[in-house]
Design a protein that fits this description.
It contains three helices and six strands, in the order H-E-E-E-E-E-E-H-H. It is of the alpha+beta class. It has one domain. The chain has a six-stranded antiparallel sheet with strand order 1-2-3-4-5-6, with no helix packed on it. It is elongated and about 75 Å long. One of its GO terms (molecular function) is metallopeptidase activity. This is Metalloprotease. It comes from Bacillus cereus.
Amino acid sequence: MQRILKFLFMSVFSLICVLYVQTNAFAAPAYEGVVKMKQPSGESFEGTLHGDEWFHWVSTKDGDVLLQDQKGYWNYVELTSDELKSTGKKYKIDKKPSMAVNENNLNKWIKNYNPQAKKKQEHMNKLQKESPK
């Protein structure tokens, strides 16, 4: 009987620990090293991942900022008033557009706009609306 109670206690304790850790594990930072990347058409390059699950991008050694589209291509990025947006021009394939943002401009924009906090707040608001009352 004592073994059963001990097993039950350890099971409940383990479950509580897992649930606690799960609720506190939100955004995680991206890997900070240089990664070899490849366009679907074969062009390869090295990029550095930045951000977390709320807001992320890739930068090249030349300071170009890239986002991946739904087809897997890495595109140059432009800044709108409140978000990063793909220009639709593929890195190492198309000519770099004049409105493409570089990493220095992006870092200034991030300090002023704080997109991670805004994206997280939008997500939390969405979850609150979806949760049963």
